[in-house]
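Continuing the series of single-chain predictions for the mutant panel. This is the parent chain; the variants come on the following pages.
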Amino acid sequence: SDCALPITADARRARADWLAAGGQCLPLDASAGPADVVVDALFGIGLTRALEGSAAAAVAAINASGCPVLALDVPSGLNADTGHPTGPVVQASATMTFIIDKCGLHTGAAADCCGEIVVAGLDLPAQLADGEPPAAERLDRDLLARALPPRRRTAHKGDFGHVLLIAGDDGYGGAARLAAEAAARGGAGLTSLLTRPANVQPVLSARPEIMVRAAAAPAETDKPARPDVLVIGPGLGQRPWGRQWLDWALQQDHPLVLDADALNLLAAEPRQLPSGSVITPHPGEAGRLLGCSTAEINADRYRAAAALAERWDCVAVLKGAGSLIAAAGHTKRVCPYGNPGMASGGSGDVLAGLIGALLAQGLPPFEAASVGALAHALAGDAAAAEGQRGMLASDLLAQLRPTLNPSC
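Parent structure:
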């Protein structure tokens, strides 16, 4: 078929070399018989359209072969910039990408297409990339050691900040407990929680280190003095109680970490966020914050993360497979860790509390969000050692301490 004929000079030269070495070139719709491995080199990084016709049929045949599949540069059918397939896409067992990493391989639907990712530099000099800033940086566990050095022996709890969480409307006390314990496990010197009266005793019984107060309306509640960071949203609800507390939080001059219903309330009634704030939406919440659909968010997660940061003048953590961190003046970051076991209720509450703790300890907002997303994902991977199915968000809490102390 025509699709099997090379178009570019490089491709024609490669075909000639292949034939000279004794290889065969068959039409895409021909059967090559049994094979031990399939090498996918149909399309590369320039593809932005959906595959159709014989190319789509070839992708279907590759996926139905039952063989291990090695994709070269990018699985055919996947957009190397966004990680989004617009049609049929090769399901690779491994992907060998050349010269530099491709940001689209690490987020969104790419997680199901690429398998193990290997970067082959081809022994080209690093200077070739000089002057070309990367579209995104991949987070590495070495960031933990750089951002979280050993503590001074003379340190005291005041050195590590005070996190105040406003969370847990009636029926959602678990979210408050998860977020508050994550803040404490994240290294905050002091952790306070304002929550509905019914949640006070359960949280205190589980974690007496957390200072818990019953919260009515803001004007009627005795609030902790001098918090460094406010975390609001986990289990907040969208009823009057949650709305009143979000109104109060937005009037404070502390950095905020906003998650869950705080984001939904903000989308319904947009207001300016305090300087240094962090938002942690999943794709559905991100769509509401940007006035678009979840599908539009997932079609280009990098663009969506940048748009969130610009629209709300904050650091944005767009959650999902390959979570993204974006902020004005910073190169976007992608987290290649994490697993499907973390896709359960409460996981985002843990992340919000953790980022709040890192902010309270003095990390700049973009760094706190990056370290938080990384540590959260690595804790999830450690918890998945016993299997992903049946993992609970609370399983991550026990893994935060070893994750955040890499030198131990």
